[in-house]
Amino acid sequence: MYFKRLLIYSIFLIIYITTVVCLKKDEYYCEKSSPCVCISIQDNNIDLTGVSLTLGLATNVSLNYQPCPVDGTSSNAIQIVNATSNTIIPLAYYKDSKFLINDAVTLVYTNATDVFDVILSCNQSATKGNEYLTNFQNDTINHLTITLKTSQVCGLNLKDAIENSSSESWTLFFSFILVVGFVYFVCGSVMNACLFNKIGINMIPHHAFWTSLYNNVKEKLCGTSMMASAYESI
Predict the structure, then answer these.
(1) Whole-model pTM?
(2) Neighbours of 151 (CB within 10 A)
(3) Within 10 A of 68 (CB to CB), how many other CB atoms are there?
(4) Any signal peptide, and if so, which residues (predicted)?
(5) Is residue 8 within 8 Å of residue 142, measured between CB atoms?
(6) What residues form DSSP beta bridges with 86?
(7) Domain topology for 31-153
């Protein structure tokens, strides 16, 4: 009885530890609290409040980027301003933004037809108030990218970021359980056959325990054998 309890507790402990390891919060996890603030569980926050940047594209034509909305101003996060014709072309809106963490931190703006990526790139000298834009380009006709240089992303460990990858953690968890189960049954069976000369079902490690556990679960789910026989007779 003591051995059975010890084995059950050990199995649940292994499953618990595996779950914690596979599904843990990674070193840097971002939860968007506004269109321009990324909150990390380790307080490595990215706060673009107050940032308002301009990148010259041509004579009297510039791209304006303001990550955080300001009360009473336009809903455009990114827009092209033509000073000659006094026109504004909106490219991205605050309500369509999200943070994406992969190899870099990216603010992604989407609408019905276009995607605009603002890639946050490390520059130690681009401290608060000294950020700047660079490398504006059309990757495709519906995909624009620009790089925002800032010191706020310097030193962040993003290799294990879990944005949009929870399924990978579950895959890792179940893969680990399957590998452990395979090693347990195969190695245990080989040891029982070679060391203890067991054959048939007796080769399965702790087969008596597993049979007892199966019968207990079956009894809980299906009732006693008497109840099962009475059910079958109806």
Answers:
(1) 0.58
(2) 15
(3) 16
(4) 1-22
(5) no
(6) none
(7) Cation-dependent Mannose-6-phosphate Receptor; Chain A (2.70.130)
